[in-house]
Amino acid sequence: MGHLVTSVAPLPLQGGGLGRFIDPFVQFLTDITNLEPVLLQLLAFGLLLGGVYALTALGLTMIFGVMDVINFAHGVFLVVGMYSVWLVSEMAGISPFLGIPIAAAVLFVLGVVVHVLTVEPIIEAPQQNQLIATLGVLFIIQSAIEIVFTPDPQQVELSLGSIQVGGVFIPLGQFYALVIALGTMLAVRAFLNRTDLGRKIRGTADNRDGARYVGINVRRINYLTFGIGAALAGVAGGSIALFQRFDPFTGETYLINAFVIVILGGLGSFPGAFVGGLIVGMIQVFGGYYLPGTTAQVLIFLLFIGTLLVKPEGLFGGAEA
Amino acid sequence: MGKTLKSSTSNRRRFLKATGASVAALTLAGCASDDAGNGGGDSGGDSGGDSGGSGGDTGTTTGTPEQSVDEVIIGSNHPLSGSLAATGVGMSNAIKLAAMRKNEEGGIESLDGAEVTVIEGDNQGAQELGGQVSEELLSEGAHVLTGCYSSPVTTAATQVAERQGVPFVISIAAADNILQGRDFNYVYRPQPPARRLASDYADLVPSVIRDGGGTIDTAGLFYINNSYGQAIRDSLREFLPEQNVEIVEETAIEFGASNANTQVSRLRSADPDTIIATTYVAGGVLLAQALQDQDYRPPYLTASASATFTDDDAVSDIGEFANGVLDNNYALNPTVDKTAEVRSQFLDNYDQEFSASVGMAYTAAEVIIQAVEEAGSVEPDDINEALKGLSYEDHISAMGAIEFDDQGENVNALGPVNQVQDLSVKVVYPEEYAEADPQV
Amino acid sequence: MSAIETVRDRYRTFDDQRYAPLVKGVALFGLLAALPTIIEIDVAGMELAALLSLKVLILTVIYAYTAQAWNIMSGYTGQFSFGHAAFFGIGAYATQALVVDAAVNPWIGMLVGGVLAGGYGLIIGALSFRFKLQGHYFALATLAFAELLRFVVTNMSELRGANGYFKAFPRDYGAEYGLVAFQFQNDLPYYYLIVGFLLVVTLVSWLIKNSWVGLYFFAIREDERAAASVGVPSFRYKLIGVAVSAFFTALGGAYWSMYFNTIRPDTVFALFKNVELLLPAVVGGPGTLLGPIVGSFIVTPVSEIARTTFSDINGLDRIIYGAFLVAIVIYSPRGVVSWPSQARALWERVRGDEEVNE
Q: Where is this region: Disordered (chain B) (predicted)?
């Protein structure tokens, strides 16, 4: 397939000058006009990364959208999902793919327990209290994992390799995660749109007080939502375990990105989470390619702030759950 | 031996564990340390004077425990929990192992067989706990300190030692500024710091490749975007051109990133003669994965100060693809028998990997023990004098005799070249430490 | 009248006096000043120092200080900031960059940092308030502004990137160890210095609280629309809150950088720094003058006691600490400082019942 030698991103040369801010964009435009093949590759990577990010944001956006709770423990829920898949495949010798539904089940139970013990008592309290309560949960679960499984990194024994399609490399682990993300998104959407319970959850998301008036048991909706949100984190964590080593602290980076995605896409919106994930993934991939260091992350936060200011309801407006 | 706990008097907080070291030492060592223990109890009584007292002007330390010198206490200040703990626990264990081995040999000879005890404090990798844990260890009676893996934590921890006039031998802390220009009088570092590692890379790796008939004119850097990665990057920028290696690409990975696809695309586009990786274990694994996924490998895959390609577990996780990687990092000396012995003892006792970092901590502990041996005293100032004049050869690190300059840096510190051959990490250069020939 | 009631009535009479806040303040800060001595008093072979060393005291007062500064904005005006690490880091970086790269005295650097942070606060505030961000959205926006700085600094070689700064020696900027140099050779002066910082910010906080500014702040917190309808210029006053809070938080960052010798983007701009800075205020009681101080004297020592007590299993202390955080927000959502009045209410209810029974 020949090396893609033609496009050489400019060196992030030390020292100042406006050039370092402008040159990457010039380079980017040049590559576009030249139809550099590397762009296609980057597009694929952006799609794959975005899919994983979207998956990590689904549970968060659900809990945020329906209950108006910022769940800081979401990152460590992902980690519990990773360890679940790992345990299942290492100890029981079951395929890690089958471990993913098990991870979802584990997380559903954990989510309900966490909700009943910590979130429910303060669901009406000032928001900072929920934030600190879920932070406490984060510390508890993270350290528990550290004590039980040691802080050493773990890895699911699975080398999936990659395939090549038209000169574009597709790492299979991430590809499967993308497929799972899409499948999960469609399944949860169908659940929310087609089932009675799903409609009640959406109704609660739209208007909590109204939901109460029409006789919806908001309490029950709350713990189901938290459970499902956690289960989604289980699916996400389990999928990540297919291609990434992890330790008890892996969740933090994903957590921050998930927050960004939730806001970008709009609270409670699943398609929004998907688009938000793609945006973050694309910026990281293209930014990582053209910009020096990890400057892409700066762009992501600028975009995040911009969205908050101009369109806080997100790209998908929270119109649908 | 109850002595271990005796010094951590019951009214004091029990933040640290009297470690298993001395207990385990007893069961393993048999009569040698028994004799030492009996003899040391009385005869060594006054040689050390009021050991803990001389440094203890903090005010928080009251009542120095009345110790005769039948025990030398090393305070180990490492991250035992939190995200650095995976390595920190191993390092602290290595220090305990060094103590245990010394006790098996009969303890500190010059102190009539005084036993070496290690007390541990968990700094959780937090800057604000570095100094605190140092003080706690000192108030527990530590005669000399070691730590801390994370550089900001080490800065805080060494500050306390310096103020109290107690020697501190750094186990690992890569930032150059910890010692350089700090005017410290009590702080020492056997390990090569970041700048030294990068300069060793430039001095050694290109010549290994060229001697083997290879060409290395261009390099692409792949580094973790934190202080450690940037410090190595900056030094490589400085030293590589001197060896006629041009850096044609630099790409960074964020801590906790999920893959290195983009970075590899970029390196692939630049297609340098070598990729130089500077990462923690995870980053190097991601690099190898992404390289394979994109079916790319530069003529020479190398690393500078990377934790990945000196870690047997990581190498076996990566598999075949890791073979041939040249890496320069501090390393264990394979040419002495002691290394294998220590390694197997470590595995038996702690069921952990004896990685380069863990080995470096082991060497730091031996430096301390040797200094105490030469000082014949547990007085901090005596140990400090011994450290200043130390020339310690009988260690297991692949470097010359450990000797400290005015700043406290080891003048013979070295980051030799390793190569992954048949999925095991082998030192290949310089020749005096090589266990195998480099395969270029 | 029982003895307790006598005491209580006397206290109420005292409380009504105009000099009461002064007396209370003097008592509180007198206690803080005496703490380093108190912790060393030996009671039956037990020293408090065994639980609270001077270093832990310093850390406690640092967080009391930052929480007090946070409180001026978030406690009083109700705009919950989750990004105060931005201001903290700006203070630390301005101080160190100026002292190391330009040999500027750290006190000056600190004030520069305060002004820069105030400016950054104004930008954050102006944008967020103009676009009417509230609740979670405002909290996340402030967090984003803080994280933004972390990545900017990490990638900026002009600010030494991820390597950060190592504090210079006093001689490097023409000073000797001491107050002028902002550097001391032992911890005790550092302790008194941060107590002084806390005194200043508490005084400012008290002045605000007892002025029309504070009145406006509380009006905004309780019901912004109602406040605006009676003519409170809420936009401007929220900005004042942010700027003052940011300024003082930056001073805390400057202190941190001088006390801990070295700063990096991943220490002073750390994600969890945002939490640490505000936690005491939430635990103690947001919007109160005493809350941040009391809260810090609970949060930091609890974490310290958990660490030293449960050290046999590495990491267990974090579980205890996490459980403590959960418990405190569930059982005391209005903060610890509300306990006395709650206890009084309970007491009066009990007594009331008794009277009825009689």
A: 32-66
